[in-house]
Design brief:
The protein has 79 residues and is mostly helical. The protein has helices spanning 9-28, 53-66; strands spanning 37-39, 71-73. The chain has one domain. It has 2 helices and 2 strands. It is flat and about 40 Å long.
Length: 79
């Protein structure tokens, strides 16, 4: 989400993946196909409040069923 000078490749790839997913969402909306993006800051850990596998599974299922918006965050983004 935020560029970092020590890891330049990650933001570039993220921007490309994000743009591609948004284009898919727009192109496939008339066919009732929904594409969304879930941003997971940090590591996925069993003990994490926002990014444990169980919490993420519930969040992904909600994205699938609710079909509300495009970009979603698994956790509040730090300032």
């Amino acid at each position: 989400m935020r560029p970092h000078p020590e890891r330049a490749g990650t933001p570039v790839a993220f921007a490309a993946e994000s743009a591609y997913a948004a284009m898919l969402r727009d192109a496939l909306a008339d066919e009732n196909i929904h594409a969304a993006q879930l941003i997971i800051p940090g590591a996925i850990r069993p003990d994490a409040e926002y990014s444990s596998p169980a919490v993420l599974a519930d969040r992904l299922f909600a994205l699938h069923t609710d079909r509300d918006g495009f970009r979603h965050y698994a956790a509040p983004m730090p300032e």
